[in-house]
Amino acid sequence: MNINKHRSGGSKSGFTLVEIAIVVTLAALVSLMTLPNVIARLPTYRLDSAADRINTHLQMARMKAMAEGQYVGIKFNSSADGYAIWSTPLKNGEAAEGTLASYGLRDLKGVLFQTYPSQGYFSPGGSFSAGSSSGTMLWIWVYSESTREQRSVVVWPSGQVSIYRYGGADA
To answer: Which end of the chain has fewer surrounding CB within 10 Å, N or C?
Structure first.
């Protein structure tokens, strides 16, 4: 009996090296064709991310004010690319010592923001006040340095936080 018998006429399963090389080459070509589109959209992704981050933090601040029955203050500092949020029992929204939480946007390259006014607070009932001299709404304009796109985050007197999207050069 010969143990080393080879099967003849049997089917082989698997792919040849040539077939695998063709598939890998096609996948690489498709990736290279889509890469410029992805890179071109990066500023818009960063802009959306910044607006969404600010929106989320403001909504969380409102929920915290309502849940804890305290005022929650907010202050933006566009020169430092960031903002601070704090809880306080003080009706004017001033920060109590040691309660400050700071957030930044420096990790999102090419994204800048401006605000008017630069601060305000949520009341325990969920409404928002920007202070007596500045009106009752908070506007945060987030924009891209490399495109003409802009996002506006608005805090209404009712406490509702909204994002508005404005197009760039192609809009």
So the answer is: N
Cα gap 7→29, rounded to integer Å:
39
pLDDT tens across 15-46, in order? 899 999 999 999 999 988 888 887 888 888 99
Is the entire prediction scored with pTM above 0.90?
Answer: no
CA distance 141 to 153: 6
Q: How many Å separate Cα 69 from the centre of its chain?
A: 28
Contact assessment for residue 161 and residue 85, using Cβ atoms and an 8 Å cutoff: no
Dihedral sign for Cα atoms in the order 169, 42, 162, 124: negative
Are the C-beta atoms of 151 and 143 separated by less than 8 Å?
yes
What digits encode the pLDDT tens for the residues 130-142? 865 656 889 999 9
Furthest C-alpha separation in the chain: 102
Distance (Å, whole) CA 96 – CA 87: 8
Closest CA to 149 of 167, 131, 136, 126: 167
Cα 151 to Cα 167: distance, rounded to the nearest angstrom: 9
Q: In the structure encoding, which two tokens stand for residue 165, read together?
A: 């999207």
